[in-house]
Amino acid sequence: MPTTTSTNKSTPKVGFVSLGCPKALTDSELILTQLSAEGYQTSKTFDGADLVIVNTCGFIDDAVKESLDTISEALAENGKVIVTGCLGARAAEDGSNLVQQVHPSVLAVTGPHATQEVMDAVHTHLPKPHDPFLDLVPGGFGEAGLKLTPKHYAYLKISEGCNHRCTFCIIPSMRGDLVSRPIGDVLKEARALFAGGVKELLVISQDTSAYGVDVKYRTGFWDGRPVKSRLYEMVQELGALAREYGAWVRLHYVYPYPSVDAVVELMAQGLVLPYLDVPFQHSHPDVLKRMKRPASGERNLERIQQWRATCPELIVRSTFIAGFPGETEEEFQHLLDFVQEAQIDRAGCFAYSDVNGAVANQLDGMLPMALRQERQARFMEVAERVSIEKLQRRVGATMQVLIDHAPALGRKGGRGRSYADAPEIDGVVHLLPPQKASKTLKVGEFTRAQIVQAQGHDLIAQPI
Ligand code: SF4
């Protein structure tokens, strides 16, 4: 588990040039979507980019020339270049790779439809940003100006900025106060994504529970009907849309305000996934006050217990900070007890570290790094025990699994996720080869599967 990193190191930036036909553009959109989802900044120019991806065309000679010239320009201006697309699959006369023969200094070359290979090359040469407060929220979809390409899961950003001023965070100074997107736009994008094949929509923002606060929950219009710009109404509408398309909706970044109770009721009705990503960061009221956390006055343990009574299937994921300035052993113990009693299903923990420009840097009682890391390790020990025990109880159950990976139609098995697993941050469900010869597994489809074993943070299941 990484410690928090200082945000004075700017977000890694990838320049992207897309040449060629609409199919190549679709590939570009997939790669850009993935880059954004992982927290990379993207741009259409080489300016200030840490590396450049060129998506090439190899159809006619002019296109080959244009692609090779673009690679040459990118190498001259930037130096770090990854090549993908049709030209990347072309062989030279001697049978070697054409791009590598002409431009031996490119970092990697892939053919078309190779999002994962391109991402692997990006990870090798430009590591993923690790800042826990920045990398969880993709930042570039709107800015990239690209429509999201159909894919089986997608992020839906409902607002930008934040009205809170948590002392360890500099997001409000970078992104400003909360600005909610009009409800009609949010729902329109959701419908377009579902219509394009998205089977899981991940609702994100800096503070999802605050949706519409900035516009005083203004009534907007959707499908000719008035709909309030408020979390409850938005979830109702998203749930209804998801039902139409047989898809999932998952909520991230929800704070434990009383208003969320009604949303949990919608989860109990099966409208959206019974999964809440609530970044608690701590449990002790004094630490929460020093952090200036939203909803710090709420009785979080009672709230979670009440949510679980309303919706027993509820999964609670959260992130925490160990060793915040001034944290006493007693306050830390409070946190350990909380994770245990609240039965947090999925927890991440960062050892506190300064973020350049954050107020918390000036707080009294900065703890030695060794102690912060020791507390982080102690926290993870407890949290993992809780999480793994809960997973063990799934053995024997049948769950709906959304398939993420299934080579050869899943004949050798595959990989997916249940409602309890958000992509990238939670565990996965490893699928065994189907027992019936007629049963196939396809990426982006659902299968029912019987859980046969829990393995660390993951489950192993037999598709049925
Ligand atoms: S709620 Fe706090 S941590 Fe989250 S973005 Fe706002 S200020 Fe930062």
TrEMBL record:
EC number: 2.8.4.4
GO molecular function per UniProt: 4 iron, 4 sulfur cluster binding; aspartic acid methylthiotransferase activity; metal ion binding; protein methylthiotransferase activity
Record bears the keyword Transferase: yes
Pfam families: Radical_SAM (PF04055), TRAM_2 (PF18693), UPF0004 (PF00919)
PROSITE patterns reported in the protein's UniProt record: MTTASE_N, MTTASE_RADICAL, RADICAL_SAM, TRAM
Keywords from the UniProt entry: 4Fe-4S, Cytoplasm, Iron, Iron-sulfur, Metal-binding, Ribonucleoprotein, Ribosomal protein, S-adenosyl-L-methionine, Transferase
A GO cellular-component term linked to this record: ribosome
Occurrences of domain MTTase N-terminal (ranges): 12-127
Keyword field contains Metal-binding: yes
SUPFAM superfamilies associated with the record: Radical SAM enzymes
Places the protein is found: Cytoplasm
Major subcellular site: cytoplasm
Cofactor(s) named in the record: [4Fe-4S] cluster
Binding site for [4Fe-4S] cluster 2: C162, C166, C169
Binding site for [4Fe-4S] cluster 1: C21, C57, C86
InterPro entries in UniProt: Elp3/MiaA/NifB-like_rSAM (IPR006638), Methylthiotransferase (IPR005839), Methylthiotransferase_CS (IPR020612), Methylthiotransferase_N (IPR013848), Methylthiotransferase_N_sf (IPR038135), NA-bd_OB-fold (IPR012340), Ribosomal_uS12_MeSTrfase_RimO (IPR005840), rSAM (IPR007197)
Domain Radical SAM core positions: 148-389
Function: Catalyzes the methylthiolation of an aspartic acid residue of ribosomal protein uS12.
Family note: Belongs to the methylthiotransferase family. RimO subfamily.
Protein's name according to its UniProt entry: Ribosomal protein uS12 methylthiotransferase RimO
Phylogenetic placement of the source organism: Bacteria, Pseudomonadati, Pseudomonadota, Betaproteobacteria, Burkholderiales
Name of the gene this protein is made from: rimO
